[in-house]
C-alpha cells in the first residue's frame, strides 16, 4: 500500500526543530531506504535494549519451563473454575483473532479520499479552544493560517477558556499577524473545553466545523483533506484526523505513544472508517457537518452522567450523537496533525483515566441506540465495534483477578509467558510502523506494551469504579 510522503518542504508554516524531527515528516516510500536519523538518547537506548533482553529471557524461560506450564494447564482443566476459565479464554481468543483478521481485511481495502478542488470545498470554521497553552497556541494558529485552503472559505476562531497564563497574549499576537483571518474570544472564567467549543459552534458560520487542540500543528493540506469526505459523501456527519505525536523527541513516553497512535489511527480507524463507524473523532483534529452538530448541540452541552454534568469526553460524545443520527463517521489518513502528549508517567495515566472514563460512559450511551434501527445502511460494523469495546470493559475484572491469582501462585510462569506474549503480539505493531514509517522508532512498540501491561493495567478497572467522577486531571 502506497504511503503518503510528508516532508518539511510541504509546510508553508515553518515548524521548530522538534516538529521537523517528528516521524510524521519522515514517511518513507517503497522506493526509498529507511534513512531516518535516530534521535535515541543513551537512556532511551538502555530502555530499548532492556526490553529485548527481558523478552528474549522470557522466551528462554518459557522453553525451559515447559513441564511446569503443562502441569499448570492440566491442573486448570481438572478444576471446575479452571475449566470454565479455559472455555471463556478460548471463546475470547477466537473472537479477538477473528476481529483482528477482519480489521486487517478492512485496512487493506481502505483508501483516504483525495482532496476535492477549491470550488467544491465547503466553507469551514476552525475552532481552537485553549487553556494555559502559552505560546503553543501561537504555533497552532499560524499553522492553520498557512493552510492550503481558500481564504474566503475559511474562518478561524480561537477561544481562551479563562487561562491563567499568557495564552490570551499569544492569541492577541496571532490576531495582529493574521488580521481579519482570525477572531479571538475570551471566556470570563474557565468553564471547560466543552463550553469553549460550544461558544465556537454558535459563533461559526461554516458548513463544516473543524476542532483543533491548541497544542497541535497541522500540515498545509490537512484541512482540505479533512473536509473532502463531506463533499463526496452526503451522509458523512464527521471525520477524524490522523494524530501523530509532536514532542516525540523530548522524552521516552512520547516516542512510545507515537508508535501506539499510528496503530490506533492508521490501522484501527482505517478499519472503522470502512464500516462508516469511527467511534471517536479526536479532539486534536476532527471535522463535523454543521447541521449534524446543531442537531445534537443542546443534548451535547447539557450532557450528564449519574446526575453530574459531563466535563470530559466531549469528542467521543459528539461522535456518538452523530452516529445516533444515522450519519457516517469516517477517517482521513491524509489529514495529519501533530499534538503534544504527556512526557511523564503521572501525566500519562491521568490522560488514560480521562479517556477511560469517557469510554465507559459513551459505551453505555451507545448501547441505547446501536441495536436499534438508527441507520438506513448496514449496522453490523457499528455493532461489532461496540461489542469489542464492551467486551474489554466487561472482562476487565475477571482478567485482573486471574492475573492476580496467576501471579500469587506461579509468578515466574506469569511473568515469562506475559513477556513472551508481548514479544509475539507487539511484533505486528512493530512491522506496521516500520512499513509505514521507519524501523528505528518502531521498536518502541515493545517497550510501550511492557509499560502498559505492567504499569497501566490498573486503569480500566479503576475507571469503571470511578466513571462518575469529573475533572480533566491533566490541567
TrEMBL record:
UniProt entry tagged with the keyword Membrane: yes
InterPro entries the UniProt entry points to: Nucleotide-diphossugar_trans
Record has Membrane as a keyword: yes
Alphabetical GO biological process terms: extracellular matrix assembly; hyaluronan biosynthetic process
Protein location: Cell membrane
Taxonomic superkingdom: Bacteria
Keyword annotations of the record: Cell membrane, Glycosyltransferase, Membrane, Transferase, Transmembrane, Transmembrane helix
Any one GO cellular component localisation term in the record: plasma membrane
Transmembrane segment boundaries: 43-63, 83-105, 384-407, 413-433, 445-465
GO molecular function: hyaluronan synthase activity
Record-given protein name: Glycosyltransferase family 2 protein
